[in-house]
Amino acid sequence: MKISFLSPAYNKEEWIIAMLDSIPKEYAYEIIICDDASTDQTLSLCIDYQKHCPQLKIIRNETNIGASESYNRLIQEATGDYIAIIDSDDKYLPEIRDVLAQVNGEYDIYYYNMITRVGRLIRKLPTDGYLWPGQFKIIRRSFIGDARFTTKKAYAGDWDFNKALVDKQPRCKYTDIIAYWYNYPRPNSESDLHVRRLK
Known about the structure:
The chain is an alpha/beta fold. It has helices at residues 16-22, 42-50, 67-77, 96-100, 141-144, 158-167, 190-198, and strands at residues 3-9, 28-35, 56-60, 82-85, 91-92, 109-116, 121-122, 137-140, 172-182. Helices cover 28% and strands 26% of the residues. Strands 1, 2, 3, 4, 5, 6, 7, 8 and 9 form a 9-stranded mixed beta sheet that branches. A hairpin with a 4-residue loop joins strand 6 (109-116) and strand 7 (121-122). The protein is globular.
């Protein structure tokens, strides 16, 4: 299976290399970064990383359009069989390889679990429904259809994206593997940039 790893990035020079390093390159058909008009060294760090990572592609927004629209642009650019979205201030744990090894085309979504920077385990369960819309998952690209991140002020754009996926009644595998380090809580987390930028 060809897997596209997607990450929007805005002023993440402190975190971007750790995120890129955490992606298992042997599973990466492509890694696409959408630089959202960063004003720090995020873009230059990515360009330098690209020299030794041929799978890395960089797309740029001429102006800052926010995380949700950057996610949508990344989904449109992806060409793999599956997509894996990772925020530029988070990282995968080594156990992500155990998840990726199970992506065989049988399921529409492969779920895993996350742990926060303060050690809180967030487990994705079959009974969750719309709960915990975050990353947690590797998604068949052809299954996404018209599901998109939105720019509503009330909540982060991944809620509508996740709801659209769940409404399609996907075939899911719940691996119960802790495979993602969620850099939260902290100020200016990627998770709250969408709402913060709109205020």
